[in-house]
């Protein structure tokens, strides 16, 4: 298996005059020197030509190839957001309707799409526990076309046993799609059978919380289907990645390996300090107490740690809000959704990014109202920040 940092490094483009970075091609449309070639592109006879930036764009392609290399795929397609990546990829697979089996611990926006929108498009969805591969097997129907899961779930940090789930999918010729937003470089889902991998690039891949973007990684064939001028969901839905955004992301991918290691080190330091203080209710996949710890280790690219996300059970929603408020006042972090930023971000998922999931379902999957989600940043003194968190916890929740 190729080193992931080296895979990113090996995708290299030069600027028009030999610059060390690629030029930003922000043309909306491209010239055809032979007018007949345009007709051939629209008819599908001619491939690989730049036509219109909603179809393909040189700068977006450069970024896409870099992500594809990182994830070990033949191809990728940058799009306007993580939700655009999910929507386009799912719609392409589920053309004409059918059945999806989906993890029940997923991002709230994804849950809302699957529970509220897809059923109105002749697509049935069954939600199952991602830690129990047998539930995926039991849920298969004659018209099942897709299994969808998150590699590391949002926000409960459940680890999908992708090796077992992929065996189930392959045995029935079902596509396996994985959201790897929480764990770039930490996991390589393709190595364990994923057919499609998506990211919200807004998070770790950007690293700066300053832009919205997504990407779909898969085979050349599937990416080609997505941009087909007649039947491609990415082409016809139109979630275009701006070339300027693609350029920013292309550049930031070079230091993603360094940032992921730093996130993992900072998060692990805080987790270890919380354990030393006897603070319970801490969830982090690298801990032996995590229910999926062994599954995590069996698939982890260990040099990249376990990521930035920690959850702490603050017992009640009131406590969680008080904690977040005090920690923001103490300059520990910022009370905001999202993750992968250079500074720590804090949120209460039950009232924010998972609020789309009905209360009874949140209870069923173990998502408590008092859960505080921390995305640990990479700047600041780890000891000082840990001291601030522990002091706030003892003040508000007790020992």
- What is the CATH fold-level name of the largest domain? Aspartate Aminotransferase, domain 2
Number of domains: 2
Task: Provide the succession of SSEs.
Answer: HHHEHEHEHEHEEEHHHHEHEHEEHEH
Mean pLDDT: 95
Distance between the termini: 46 Å
Q: What's the level 1 CATH class of the largest domain?
A: Alpha Beta
Poorly predicted tracts of residues: none
| Radius of gyration over C-alpha positions, nearest whole angstrom | 21 Å
The main sheet comes to: 7 strands, mixed
* DSSP strand content: 5-15%
Description:
The protein is an alpha/beta fold and 399 residues long. The chain has two domains: 4-253, Type I PLP-dependent aspartate aminotransferase-like (Major domain) (Aspartate Aminotransferase, domain 2, 3-Layer(aba) Sandwich), CATH 3.40.640; 256-396, Aspartate Aminotransferase, domain 1 (Alpha-Beta Complex), CATH 3.90.1150.10. The chain contains 15 helices and twelve strands. α6 packs parallel to α7 (162-171). The longest helix has 21 residues, at 256-276. The radius of gyration is 21 Å and the shape is globular.
Question: Secondary-structure blueprint of this entry?
Answer:
Elements: H1 4-9, H2 35-43, H3 58-71, E1 75-79, H4 82-93, E2 98-103, H5 108-117, E3 123-128, H6 133-139, E4 144-150, H7 162-171, E5 175-179, E6 196-200, E7 214-218, H8 220-226, H9 233-237, H10 243-253, H11 256-276, E8 282-283, H12 293-299, E9 309-313, H13 317-329, E10 334-335, E11 345-347, H14 359-365, E12 371-375, H15 382-396
Parallel strand pairs: 2-3, 2-4, 4-5, 5-6, 10-11
Antiparallel strand pairs: 1-7, 6-7, 8-9, 9-12, 11-12
Helix pairs in contact: 3-10, 6-7, 11-15, 13-15
């Amino acid at each position: 298996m190729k080193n992931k940092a080296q895979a990113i490094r090996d995708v290299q483009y030069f600027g028009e005059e030999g610059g060390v970075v690629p030029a930003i091609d922000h043309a909306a449309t491209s010239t055809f020197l032979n007018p007949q070639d345009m007709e051939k592109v629209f008819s599908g006879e001619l491939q690989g030509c730049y036509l219109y930036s909603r179809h393909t764009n040189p700068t977006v392609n450069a970024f896409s190839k870099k992500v594809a290399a990182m994830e070990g795929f033949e191809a990728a397609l940058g799009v306007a957001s993580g939700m655009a990546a999910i929507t386009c990829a799912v719609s392409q697979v589920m053309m004409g309707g059918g059945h999806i089996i989906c993890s029940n611990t997923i991002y709230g926006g994804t849950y809302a799409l699957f529970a509220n929108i897809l059923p109105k498009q002749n697509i049935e969805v069954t939600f199952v526990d991602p830690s129990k591969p047998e539930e995926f097997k039991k849920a298969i129907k004659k018209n099942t076309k897709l299994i969808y899961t998150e590699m590391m779930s949002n926000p409960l940090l459940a680890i999908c046993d992708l090796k077992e789930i992929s065996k189930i999918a392959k045995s029935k010729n079902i596509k396996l799609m994985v959201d790897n937003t929480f764990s770039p470089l930490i996991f390589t889902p393709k190595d364990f059978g994923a057919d499609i991998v998506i990211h919200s690039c807004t998070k770790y891949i950007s690293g700066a919380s300053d832009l919205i973007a997504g990407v779909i990684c898969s085979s050349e064939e599937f990416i080609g289907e997505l941009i087909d001028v007649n039947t491609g969901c990415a082409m016809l839905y139109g979630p275009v990645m701006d070339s300027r955004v693609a350029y920013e992301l292309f550049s930031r991918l070079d230091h993603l390996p360094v940032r992921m290691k730093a996130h993992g080190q900072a998060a692990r330091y805080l987790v270890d300090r919380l354990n030393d203080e006897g603070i319970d209710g801490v969830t982090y996949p690298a801990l032996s107490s995590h229910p999926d710890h062994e599954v995590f280790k069996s698939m982890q690219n260990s040099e990249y740690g376990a990521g930035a996300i920690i959850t702490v059970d603050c017992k009640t929603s009131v406590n969680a809000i008080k904690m977040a408020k005090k920690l923001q006042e103490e300059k520990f972090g910022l009370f905001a959704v999202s993750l992968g930023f250079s500074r720590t971000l804090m949120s209460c998922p039950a009232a924010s990014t998972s609020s789309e999931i009905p209360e009874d379902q949140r209870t069923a999957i173990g998502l408590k109202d008092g859960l505080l989600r921390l995305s640990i940043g990479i700047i600041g003194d780890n000891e000082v920040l840990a001291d601030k968190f522990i002091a706030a916890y003892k003040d508000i929740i007790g020992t």
